[in-house]
Fold this sequence. Notes:
By secondary structure, the protein is mainly alpha-helical. It has helices at residues 2-27, 82-96, 101-117, 124-128, 147-160; strands spanning 173-176, 188-192, 195-198.
Amino acid sequence: MPALRSxxxxxxxxxxxGWTAQMTIAALPATPEAPKAPTTPVTIIAADPPxxxxxxxxPASTQVAxxxxxxxxxxxxxxxxxxxxxxxxxxxxxEAGAQPGAGQIxxxxxxxxxxxxxxxxxxxxxVVRQRGQFFDVxxxxxxxxxxxxxxxxxxxxxxxxxxxxEVAPGALFFHxxxxxxxxxxxxxxxxxxxxxxxx
Length: 199
């Protein structure tokens, strides 16, 4: 009996200890949770839109002009002086009015060559008025409405503006084939119609 009693007392003692332990654990204060860090809102910023970078123009030396505006080397004809045209046209009509077109052009070109030679007057009117060379051009007044005069004016205009090809290159003189006057030591350049041209 004493042994049984001792066993019961021990058992009760263990039960009492377990209950006390449970009560102690229950009485302990709860461990506070660590404060959470405030959440910072995140804003996503889109990348900057592409920026157009200006391209510098190519240097002037490398730029190519369009074909339509490429400059040419063709000289612009200079307008002929009306007074000079009249003086030359009178000689063309008077001296070669009955000659073929090339013969009339050759007479106009002789006058032009004299102007450029430096051996005669400085313009067409001065050349045709020189003493002993032609005729009295001031007294000669052909009909201005005639086809012959208009043709002579066109030939003189072309000669004074450097139009057309040379038909008697370098010729400074001419005379009719029927004339008894010779050309001496001068070189014959061309014979056109009834006239011979020489220099």
